[in-house]
C-alpha cells in the first residue's frame, strides 16, 4: 500500500513517498493519523545528515529508539540510520478551541459553554514523552475543570464573575499540565447558552429590575422635588421675616429719631420762648400769641364732631387772654419760688457742716 505524506523542514516542504507493506512495521507513527497531533508534532523531517531547524521549533531526536537530544534552531548534524527526528514541537503560543459542553450550575441550571485556550510548550521533552496526545489531554482537562468550576457558582455569578472563573481555570489547568511541559497562559469563555425558559425568566427579571429602578428613581425625584419646594418655602419665610424684622427695626428707629427730633425742636422752641418772654414786652408778645391760638382754635370748631362745649364768655377774647396770662403768671411765680428755695438749701449746707465740725471738736476737748 502506497501513502503520500507531506513533511515540513525549515521553511520549505519536502514531499516523500513511503511504501508500506502489510508485513512491514517500518511505517509512519500512529500519532500522525490525527490533525491534532500534526499541530503539536509537526511533520517529521527525514535525516539528511545536515538539518536546519527553524526558529521557535524544537526537534526531538532519538538514537536507536532512545531519546538522544533536542536540536536547537539553526544548523545541526545527525548520523544517518542511527538518529531519527521523532517529534517536532512548536514553541509558539498555541490556540485551541474548547468544544461546547454542558454543565450544571450551583442552582441546578444547565448551561452550554465553550471557550478558547492559549498554551505554550515550555519543555519539549515532557510534551513529547509525558502525554500521548497533548491537545486532546488539555482539551479534556479544560472541559472537566470548567464543569467543576461552574458547579461552584450560581447562574448570576457565572455572568458576573467571568474573569475570576477564567483565572481559576488557568490555575487548575497549570497544576495538572506541569508534568506535560505545557503552560496555560489564559482561558477565555466564548459563549454561554442557557435554556429558553431560563432565558425568558432572566429577561423578565431584568425588566422587573428596570421597572423597580425606574420607580425608585421616580420616587426619589418626587421626594427631592418636595424637599426642594419645602426648602424654598422655608427660605422664603425666613427672608420675609427677616425683611419684616428689618422693616420694623428701621421703622422704630425712624420713629425714635422723629420723637427725639420733635423733643429737641420743642425744647428749643420752649427755650427760645422763655428767652423771648424774659425780654422787654415779652408779656405782650405772649398775650398776642395766646390770642392768635384762640382765634385759630375757634376756626376749627365743629369740623370733626357736631357736639361742641363752649364757655359762657366765648365772644370775650380779652377775658380769655387775661385768664391765660394769669395762669402763666402763677406758674412763673411757682417756678421762681422753687428756684429760690433750692438756692437757699444749697447755701445752708456749708453752714451746717461747719457747725457739726465745731461741735465735734468741742466734745473731744
Question: Summary?
Answer:
The chain is of the alpha+beta class and 365 residues long. It has 8 helices and 10 strands.
Overview of this structure, please?
The structure is a single chain. By secondary structure, the protein is of the alpha+beta class. It is built from eight helices and ten strands. It is rod-shaped. Mean pLDDT is 75; it is low at 1-42 and 351-365.
The low-pLDDT segments are 1-42, 351-365
How does the helix and strand content classify structurally?
Answer: alpha+beta
Mean pLDDT: 75
Q: How many helices?
A: 8
Biased composition (Polar residues): 355-365
InterPro entries: Band7/mec-2_domain, Band_7, Band_7/SPFH_dom_sf, STML2-like_C, Stomatin_HflK_fam
Main location: mitochondrion
Protein name: Stomatin-like protein 2, mitochondrial
Amino acid at each position: 500500500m502506497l501513502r503520500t505524506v507531506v513533511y515540513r523542514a525549515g521553511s520549505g516542504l519536502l514531499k516523500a513517498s513511503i511504501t508500506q507493506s502489510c508485513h512491514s512495521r517500518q511505517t509512519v507513527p500512529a500519532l500522525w493519523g490525527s490533525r491534532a497531533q500534526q499541530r503539536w508534532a509537526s511533520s517529521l523531517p527525514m535525516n539528511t545528515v545536515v538539518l536546519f531547524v527553524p526558529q521557535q521549533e524544537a526537534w526531538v531526536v532519538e538514537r536507536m529508539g532512545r531519546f538522544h537530544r533536542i536540536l536547537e534552531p539553526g544548523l545541526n548534524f545527525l548520523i544517518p540510520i542511527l538518529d531519527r527526528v521523532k517529534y517536532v514541537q512548536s514553541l509558539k503560543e498555541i490556540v485551541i478551541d474548547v468544544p461546547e459542553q454542558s454543565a450544571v450550575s450551583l442552582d441546578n441550571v444547565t448551561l452550554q459553554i465553550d471557550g478558547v485556550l492559549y498554551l505554550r510548550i515550555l519543555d519539549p521533552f515532557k510534551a513529547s514523552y509525558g502525554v500521548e496526545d497533548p491537545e486532546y489531554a488539555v482539551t479534556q482537562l479544560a472541559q472537566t475543570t470548567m464543569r467543576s468550576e461552574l458547579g461552584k457558582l450560581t447562574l448570576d455569578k457565572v455572568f458576573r464573575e467571568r474573569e475570576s472563573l477564567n483565572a481559576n481555570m488557568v490555575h487548575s489547568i497549570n497544576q495538572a499540565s506541569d508534568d506535560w511541559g505545557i503552560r496555560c497562559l489564559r482561558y477565555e469563555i466564548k459563549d454561554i447558552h442557557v435554556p429558553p425558559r431560563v432565558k425568558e425568566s432572566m429577561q423578565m427579571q431584568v425588566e422587573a429590575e428596570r421597572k423597580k429602578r425606574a420607580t425608585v428613581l421616580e420616587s426619589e425625584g418626587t421626594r427631592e422635588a418636595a424637599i426642594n419646594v419645602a426648602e424654598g418655602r422655608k427660605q422664603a419665610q425666613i427672608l420675609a421675616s427677616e425683611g419684616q424684622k428689618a422693616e420694623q427695626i428701621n421703622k422704630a428707629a425712624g420713629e425714635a429719631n422723629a420723637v427725639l427730633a420733635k423733643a429737641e425742636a420743642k425744647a428749643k422752641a420752649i427755650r427760645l420762648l422763655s428767652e423771648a418772654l424774659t425780654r422787654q414786652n415779652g408779656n405782650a408778645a405772649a398775650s398776642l400769641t395766646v390770642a392768635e391760638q384762640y382765634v385759630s382754635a375757634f376756626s376749627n370748631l365743629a369740623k370733626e364732631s357736631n357736639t361742641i362745649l363752649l364757655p359762657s364768655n366765648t365772644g370775650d377774647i380779652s377775658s380769655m387772654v387775661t385768664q391765660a396770662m394769669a395762669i402763666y403768671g402763677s406758674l412763673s411765680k411757682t417756678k421762681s419760688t422753687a428756684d429760690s428755695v433750692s438756692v437757699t438749701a444749697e447755701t445752708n449746707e456749708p453752714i451746717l457742716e461747719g457747725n457739726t465740725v465745731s461741735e465735734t471738736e468741742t466734745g473731744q476737748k
